[in-house]
Each structure stands twice: as structure tokens, then as C-alpha cells.
Amino acid sequence: xxxxxxxxxxxxxxxxxxxxxxxxxxxxxxxxxxxxxxxxxxxxxxxxxxxxxxxxxxxxxxxxxxxxxxxxxxxxxxxxxxxxxxxxxxxxxxxxxxxxxxxxxxxxxxxxxxxxxxxxxxxxxxxxxxxxxxxxxxxxxxxxxxxxxxxxxxxxxxxxxxxxxxxxxxxxxxxxxxxxxxxxxxxxxxxxxxxxxxxxxxxxxxxxxxxxxxxxxxxxxxxxxxxxxxxxxxxxxxxxxxxxxxxxxxxxxxxxxxxxxxxxxxxxxxxxxxxxxxxxxxxxxxxxxxxxxxxxxxxxxxxxxxxxx
Length: 309
Known about the structure:
The chain has 309 residues and is an alpha/beta fold. Helix content is 41%, strand content 19%. The radius of gyration is 20 Å and the shape is globular.
């Protein structure tokens, strides 16, 4: 049996000083990707010089710089559309990778034909401290039924076990693309949810990715992020109910209750800190949720809602 072809897709924005280390860690892989696509989203700090320095280090390396900023989902859709491999690895532009990453991910998909995707543990630097934190999930099996994975790790949660890096079968992407732009910088989490609702999920319990912990606008608490994640889970609940033939009424109401409880904790924290801006922001977004997202009274019929302005 021939080896599957592997594509690596990297979306980049404004971190050229870290891009070299990312590409160097790819050049040290025990399984070199068959093709690498690096898509820069019109960064103010142009990474072209860094990218060109690595073009001859890989069998097939394509660098592209957008003429205008597309934002993360559209840039990710653009770069994945270039991939021709059997498996497609989404990688971040400032992370560094264990030399075994591509090989172990590919082996997991070969070994588990029902898996639509595979992810792994992480190693994250702790700002200001000499040690690192390992994000591992020893309770998660190498292969988990997709619906079980969604119910256990996405339903009524406010975060994602799966980082923005994963390897996905190209056939799965062909069925489920695009990354949906209405979920903005968290559209990858929506994709992982939808994959788990249609396919099993594989996992490698090793810290194969060293994540970048530099300051970005996406770090820290953001009520808009909570709202977007709430929307994604709502969509997932409806799809889960369609797959399982169950009613969406109770899980949707539970999701709304969880949102309100999270809002109450947020408000309590704002009151303790006397943070009027955060209080106003939280109140505005909760109002949008309650106005635009009403749970169905029966059955599992999906409905579309608009994001707040």
C-alpha cells in the first residue's frame, strides 16, 4: 500500500520573526510533507523574505501573499483549496513542531480509517516562568466515536480541546468546507465540531506542538468570543439532534442557561473590579443572544439567526 500524500497549509499574519522557526521545525520532520502552502494575509510586516529563504528546503513549497486582508476563515479556505494531498495538516505560523508530528498524525489516520481528523497534545510556554505547561488528555482514547466526542467535549462547553492545528482527510474537507466566515477567528472550532458530528476523532497523546504564547488581540477574555462560541454550539446541537433523531429543545435551553450563568459570573467579576466597560459590553451581547436566539418549542428544526452588529 502506497503512502498517503500529505499537504501542509499554513496561514500567516504579521509574525515574520517567528516564521523561520516554524519552517525549520517542518524541515526536521521524519516524514517530510509532499507539499507546503504558506498563505500570508497581507501582513503589515511582510514575511516574503523569510518565506523565500525556505523555498528550496522542501519538495514543493508555494508562498502566496494576499493583495488585501481576507481575515482568518477566508485565508484558511484559500490555502486549503490549494491542497492536493490525501491528508491536510493545518498549522499555525508561529508554533514549532516535534520532528515526529507529521509522521504520527498520518499513522493515526492510516490506522483508523473511520477518523476524519487527528490532533495531539501541546506544550505551552508560561510567560515569565522557566517551565512549560503540557496540555495532554490521557483519558481520551486514540480513537473516539465522533458523536460521543461532540457530546463529551463540545456540548455546553466554552473552549475547544482541539487547538487550531490538526490533520484532516482531504475527502472530509471536500465534504464540509468552507470554514464559515461568520465565526471569524474561531471558525476552526466550528469545523472541528462539524467533523466530529460526521466522523470519528483520532488523538495522539504526546506534546508534539510547542505553541506560541506571544501577545495577540485574541488572547484573554472577550465577550464576543463567548457569543460566537455559543452560536457554534447551537448549530452543533441542531446537527447532533438530526444525527441522533432526538429533540433539540432541552439541550438548547441548557445551552442558554449556561450562557446566562456565565454572564452572571462575568457581571459579578465586573462589579468587583468596578469595570463599567466590561459590564456594558457583556450586557449588550447577552441582550443580542436573547433577542436573536430563541430555542425551538419542539422537534429539531434548525433556524438561522444573525450576529449582533
